[in-house]
Transcription factor domain-containing protein (Neonectria ditissima), 200 residues
Amino acid sequence: MKLALQSWLHDWADLFNQPRSQFLQMGFHFAHLLAYCQSLKSPQVMEGDSLLAEMMRLSQTIINLAIDTTDERTRHLTDHIYHIVTFSTLTLCRLVHTYESTLRAAGYDIAALDDLIQRLIDWLNSIGLLCHAAHMLGDIVSARFKRLRPNFSSRIGVGVTSDDEAASEIDYQFLSADIAFLDPEYIGADLFNLDFSSGL
């Protein structure tokens, strides 16, 4: 799979230099990330920290591409772009939760990673009207983030009122019952039931 993607990139690299190519880049990185997630199901999964490092890099790259290229047209993007970003954020959240000690030993700034996830949640919740798909996806990521990273305290100064906390708790109770039931395909919920530690 990786060789096929690299071969494709060799043939179509010029497209990455075109205006608004960030969506093509997101899709390309997502294809790698999804392949790595699927490889965790295989007993022949890569050994060592290389798979973990690559999944971390891809997740962060996709998230940063989304945040850093926001403009007036962002709210009009097709849902699959938001699904890619959501999947990447959920993957990063799960990796940080599962491998926190390994990541710290490797020199990762865990607080910065948590802040990045929170920034993405805030980004999703800033897009369009409340009925926009991004807000629903933001609630899904927020619920999972609170569950896996309950001790998170933002360093980026985002104010949260008591009303916001109450609303978030309601969202969490609604969403956490069975996130996989909502739509396992677009958020990859089936992947998050895996024991990641068994393959790394």
Summary: The longest helix spans residues 79-98. The chain has a mean pLDDT of 80.
